[in-house]
Structures are given as structure tokens and as C-alpha cells.
Amino acid sequence: MKAIGLYRYLPIEDPNSLIDIEIETPAPGAHQLLVRVKAVSVNPVDIKTRAPKAGIETIPRILGWDVAGIVEAAGPDCHLFEPGDAVYYAGDWLHPGANSEFHLVDECIVARKPNSLDFAQAAALPLTTLTAWEGIFDRLMIAPEPEKNRGKSILIINAAGGVGSIAAQFAQWAGLKVIGTASRPASIQWAKAHGVAVILDHRQSLASQLQQYGYTNVDYILCLKNVAQHWHTMAEIIAPQGKICLIDDVYAPLDIAIFQPKSATIAFENVFTRPNFHTADMTEQHHILTGVAELIDAGVLQTTLNERLSPISADTLRQAHARVETGEMVGKLVVEQFPE
């Protein structure tokens, strides 16, 4: 089968940073699905994984953690899906990624694709949807019930990115006042169209901007980018007994004691925790994506797809990586359709 992989970790401008390869089509294990890949999204995790560093792979490394496709075959112990089902999912870190014609995945982290979306629109969602849902409802422990959140606010730092675009929709649906950071006209427009009520410029003081809008603090913060840059600001603006969720990498030690006076909660969200550690509640990701598909089909939520490229090939994926690598993506970029 066709696949796109790497042997060396090179700058994306290098034609060998991602290459077209042919590998054997795998067979599904007991609880696995073999999915015919129709579309894949490119995320910052792809960029970080592929980034230049030492080391050479003896077996080609295949990236890709956002998938929409059709079940080709199901393992003997599968009971949630059967061949022909259209599905979407994020996959895990322990197996090859989905930049291939066929992909193996444990069925318990897969859900049926929203009926109202095409494959590219669906592929834009899984990784960021799971990150946002787990961050808001599991880590920040916000109840998905509007009546319990009246008068409460959340600040989403990087509200126009892939996670921010769906997180803002979840927060609005849950009844929160959604405040988000964005700075460029395109990102401001996108954030507002996806549920952000109040826009702050991350290049200026967030505290003073909040005060201009009548807020002395916020109940929750979902920090999706530049944790160190916003660390002291978050300590300043979080409400007493407020909660903060971080998803971005922390590259140096940070002083957590500054949050002690407010008894603030600091939590991390990693979308791969459940599948990587085979947690007892691993199937929760199946349930999350299933519920989100229902909300999308009901018109409550919308896809965060903003850019499409085609076909799925090394050349196209290098273009996609270069685009995401700029750090200026608004919404999600998806690559669709393997060449015949």
C-alpha cells in the first residue's frame, strides 16, 4: 500500500523530510479495525515529531493522527463496527500513524463519522475535539450543563487554532462566557464565528484588557500555546479556586507556587494518555467522538476545517507541514484522497 514516511528528521524544505513509500498492508488484530484512509489532518504534533533532530529510522516512521475513512476489515473481537462503516478518530502514539492508504486502530477510540460532513470535514476534528473535550470537561471539570455555568467565564489562549476553534464551541454550548485571544483580522473573525464572545490581543496585557470588558478575573483558563509567556498573567487573572488546563509543552521549570494563594488547580491534557496507557476508561474517546458527531449532525457544532489540499502524497504533506509550521494556521488543514 502507499504511505508517506521518513527515515531522517529533516527541515521540511528537504525533499527527503517526507517521502512516498510502499509498505505491506497490515491485518487487524483482535480488537483492531483496518481503515481505508480518505483524509488526514496535519497538527502541531506532526510538526514536532518530524522536526530536525539526530537519529535515523531503520523502519520508515509514519505520522498522522487525525483520520476519516471507511472500515475495510474488523478483527474477530470487534463489536462496535463492521466493514463499510464511515469512521473518524485520532489514533494513538504506540502504532504507525495514518499517512497511509490503510491504517490499524483499536476500535474503542473510533466513532462513526458525522453524517453531515464529508471525509475532509470530519478529519479536521478528532484530535482537537478530544483535546478540547477532555481539557474542558475532564480536566477543568466543567459540567456540560448551561444552568450550572451561568455567570462563569473561560479564557481560551489561542482561540483561533485547531483546538481553540472547537473548544470555544464546547464552552459556548456549556453556557460559559467565552473569552479568547486572537490578534490578526483573519483569526479574530474566525474565533468570533466559532463561539468567542470577547477577543483579547495576546500581544498586549490580558489583565488590563479584561478590566476594560468588566472582568477582574476568569473562572477557567485553557492555555493552548506559549505556557511560559502567559504563566504570571494566568496567576494574576485566574479567579480564587479557579482551574487552569495546559496542553502545550513546557520547556523549562516554572514556579507553581505563584498559584498557591488562590488555591488554583493546574491540570495537563494529553489526548494520547488514554490510548497510550490503556486506561480503564479508554473507550471514553469512542463515546466523546460519538456524542460530538451527534451534536454536529444536529447543527449545534461545526467543523473547524479551513484549508484542503489534495492528493495525499509526500509532496502535498510537505506543503501542509510547511503551512502549519508557520504557526499562523486558523482552524484546521486537511489533506485528502490518495492518488489512483
TrEMBL record:
An example Gene Ontology molecular-function term: oxidoreductase activity
Membrane spanning stretches: none
SMART domains, per database record: PKS_ER
Keyword NADP set for record: yes
Gene3D superfamilies linked to this entry: Medium-chain alcohol dehydrogenases, catalytic domain (3.90.180.10), NAD(P)-binding Rossmann-like Domain (3.40.50.720)
InterPro entries in the record: ADH-like_C, ADH-like_N, ADH_Zn_typ-1, ER, GroES-like_sf, NAD(P)-bd_dom_sf, Zinc-ADH_QOR/CCCR
Residues annotated as domain Enoyl reductase (ER): 13-335
Keyword annotations of the record: Metal-binding, NADP, Oxidoreductase, Zinc
Family, per entry: Belongs to the zinc-containing alcohol dehydrogenase family. Quinone oxidoreductase subfamily.
Protein name: Zinc-type alcohol dehydrogenase-like protein
Organism name: Reticulibacter mediterranei
